[in-house]
Each structure stands twice: as C-alpha cells, then as structure tokens.
Amino acid sequence: MKNYIIANWKLNPATYKQSKRILRDYPKTAPLGAEIVVCPPDVFLKGVVGQFKNRFHWGAQDCFWEDRGAYTGGVSPAELKNSGAEYVIVGHSERREVWSETDEIINKKIKALIKAGLAPILCVGGGMEARKRKLKITLLIGRQLNNDLKGISLSALKKTGMIIAYEPVWAIGTGRPASASYAGEIAELIRKNLDKKYGAKFSKSTPLIYGGSVTGPIAAEMKQQPGINGFLVGGASLNPKEFSKIVKILK
Ligand code: PGA
Known about the structure:
The protein is an alpha/beta fold. Helix content is 46%, strand content 15%. It is built from 12 helices and 8 strands. The protein has an 8-stranded parallel barrel with strand order 1-2-3-4-5-6-7-8, surrounded by 5 helices. The longest helix has 19 residues, at 180-198. The protein starts with a strand and ends with a helix. 2-phosphoglycolic acid binds next to strand 8.
C-alpha cells in the first residue's frame, strides 16, 4: 500500500511568502510509493497550488458541511476543491476540543466531502485516560469510528477513499510521541473496526497513519510496523529540514 505523509500546518505561517519559502525547501519529490499531502491554511491554498502544483498533493485542515448559503465564515468542500484540495482533514482533536466538534458534526463533514469528491483524512484518538486503560481506548476508537462514519456506505467511501489518522491527544505537540508498538497496536484495532464495518478488502486498502510529535527518529521506528502507512506531521512540517528527514524514511 502507498505511504502518506500529511503536512498539517495548522494556523501557520502568517504570510503567503513564508508558505512559499517552506515549500521551496521541502523535498523535491516524494519517495516511490509515497505521497506528500500539504495542508496549508485555506487562504494560501490556491496560491501555493499554483506555484508548486505537481510537486505535492494538496489538502485542507477542515471544512464546513454545506455547499453554499448563509453560513458566515464557513468554507465548503466545493470551494476547497476549486482551490486545489484533494484531501481534507476532519475530526482533528483540536477541532473536537477548541471548536467543540462532535462526532455528529464530523459525520456531516465526511458525507459532504465524499459528495464533493474529496478524500477525508479522519483523525481519531483519545486522551490520557484512554491511554492507561486498554478497554477504554478500544471502546473510544470503536465509538468514534462508528459515529463518524454512521450511514456512510462502502460504495460511497470507495469513490474517494479515506485515510485514518490515529492521533493520541497526549502526543500532539508535546514532543512525546506514542511508542511504535503502541501505535501499531492501535492501528490494528482501527483496522479490525473497519473490517467489521466494511469488510477485509476495504480495511486492508485503507491507509492508517500515525500523528503526534512525529520527527525523524520515531518515524524510523514506526516504519517497522507493517500496519502503519505513514504520518500526519504538525510542528515538524513547518521545518523543512526535519520534514525532509521524515519523508526520506519512507524510501
Ligand atoms: P504535532 O501535531 O506533530 O505538532 O504533534 C500533529 C497533529 O496535530 O496533527
């Protein structure tokens, strides 16, 4: 299966010029069998796609679920698609926490993305409590996947494909990633859930990636886990040198 490296820039940088500078220093090409997906702030998306179109694949960090209308501040899947996005991150823990997004909201967004022909990058994962108790994380991941994908058929999902990112909240931005074996265990848990819901063929062909304080060394360890198909990179994706190290590991 292909490997994915998703660069999630979050609310950075402040200027279009800086965005271009970061991308200029990114790897010139992705390793064979891997795809680099850059998710800059929406306001810079169209510009950087124009400048660096064929070097990378493109995504957005979130979307609204309606196509158009009186929704002040909303950005629709169609608008993102027309700006060059192929992927959209949904259900990131920062959206779940800071914007109080529920599984119901995430479900609406995934449906809207598929309708627009964009592939969702669905983030799941729990906090410290879930880390300590195996049963808790099993139930939590099962509940998030069930509710986020409620009413979404296999044939609908097959149209766009989907990437699932396991992102433990305690590892995001802390400099303390999950261990490779733990991330591998959770990837297996996610795959089992997908298998039950959509069958073995789909679950085997769905990329499962890890996110949370990814840098070169942990990426190298995680690469040894056959169930992990890449990384969602936050902080390190703003540093082209560190990001290049992560990309190189997937060679
Ligand atoms: P981080 O962020 O790499 O800075 O921990 C990952 C994410 O939140 O997507």
